[in-house]
Design brief:
Extracellular Endonuclease, Chain A; globular
Length: 215
């Protein structure tokens, strides 16, 4: 934790930026504590926005025992299913993590497949878990933070089953109260990435250019 807190002065020097969520959204889905911008073309979310509150993340919490399920608010042609990921070498990566919400209903909603995209296990359980932990630490320190989590696609397309597209990168934008500058991370979605989160700091301008192919 001390190493993460020492990064704060560096993180706060990043340029002030708007949210990628301000770009046109193909399909918008509203949930109790998070909103989804979803792509029927990709069969994944493009981004989600949510707030992490101190009272929801303080103390120890057990991982919720929910099952992933399709989001039937989406047209059939746009949906992904839990079995699409089986044996593919990719985790069902949450964009809005379950552990940041206090209520049973709120946590259950994070297991909708509209909140999931293919993520390499080494990323999901390595540097990405550390970035999510950093966001929780900031919420405890400042009372709350606003977060946008999303995925980016390059020109070449690759898929798991049922036409679910594999993102090339994952990003997270963390906005801290009374701070003009957000904290921005971008992580390539590939095996063997370094696990020190400072290597994945980014500016919004670079992130915006990386995600130019998103739709």
């Amino acid at each position: 934790m001390k190493k993460l807190l020492l990064l704060i002065p560096v993180l706060m020097s990043l340029a002030s930026v708007p949210s990628l969520a301000e770009s046109p959204c193909p399909i918008h889905l509203h949930n109790s504590r998070y909103d989804v911008c979803y792509s029927c073309k990709r069969k994944t979310p493009l981004s989600v926005t949510y707030e992490i509150r101190r009272e929801d993340v303080e103390g120890k919490r057990k991982r919720p025992a929910f099952s992933f399920r399709p989001d039937y608010r989406l047209p059939a042609k746009c949906r992904s299913y839990p079995k699409d990921y089986a044996g593919t070498g990719y985790d069902r990566g949450h964009l809005a993590p379950a552990g940041i919400f206090g209520g049973w209903k709120e946590r259950k909603e994070t297991f909708l497949m509209s909140n999931v995209a293919p993520q390499k296990p080494s990323v999901n359980r390595g540097v990405w878990a550390k970035i999510e932990r950093f966001a929780r630490i900031m919420a405890v320190r400042y009372g709350k933070v606003e977060v946008t989590t999303g995925v980016c696609f390059d020109g070449e397309r690759s898929f798991i089953r049922h036409g679910v597209e594999i993102p090339d990168r994952w990003y997270k934008i963390i906005r801290i109260p009374n701070r003009k500058e957000p904290v921005v991370f971008v992580v390539p979605n590939r095996k063997g990435e370094k696990e020190n989160i400072k290597f994945f700091l980014c500016t919004y301008d670079i992130l915006f250019n990386i995600c130019a192919n998103n739709e």
